[in-house]
Design goal:
- This protein has 115 residues and is mainly beta.
- 0% of the residues lie in helices and 53% in strands.
- The protein is built from no helices and eleven strands.
- The strands form two sheets. Strands 2, 4, 5, 6, 9, 10 and 11 form a seven-stranded mixed beta sheet that branches. Strands 1-3-8-7 form a four-stranded antiparallel beta sheet, with no helix packed on it.
- Strand 7 and strand 8 form a beta hairpin.
- The chain is globular.
Length: 115
């Protein structure tokens, strides 16, 4: 059974940092995993992903230079280190993977950037 469980969200002041975790189970640890976010009243957008084959990373323009994605295959966990957070980063962040024709999501973790 494929499961993705996010953690690490919270309330942070502008300019602060958070590290989100996505603990995965039920599929090989080297599959590609992405982070997406959705703010109230806005469409879901891709934030970052890390490939399965060679660890290649992708970042949305809005987070380049501020967010870093990484993975620990031994723990089957993908991290999203977020720095220099802005109020516009406020959203529910979810991790996602495509595995054997299925599209799997975690429950999401809320990130609120506010003073």
């Amino acid at each position: 059974q494929v499961q993705l469980v996010e953690s690490g969200g919270g309330l942070v002041q502008p300019g602060g940092s958070l590290r989100l975790s996505c603990a995965a189970s039920g599929f090989p640890s080297d599959y590609s995993i992405g982070w997406l976010r959705q703010a109230p009243g806005k469409e879901r957008e891709g934030v970052s992903c890390i490939s399965s084959s060679d660890g290649t990373t992708y970042y949305a323009e809005s987070v380049k230079g501020r967010f870093t994605i990484s993975r620990d295959n031994a723990k089957n966990t993908v991290y999203l280190q977020m720095a220099s957070l802005k109020p516009e980063d406020t959203a529910t962040y979810s991790c996602n993977t495509l595995y054997l024709g299925g599209n799997y999501w975690g429950q999401g973790t809320q990130v609120t950037v506010s003073s």
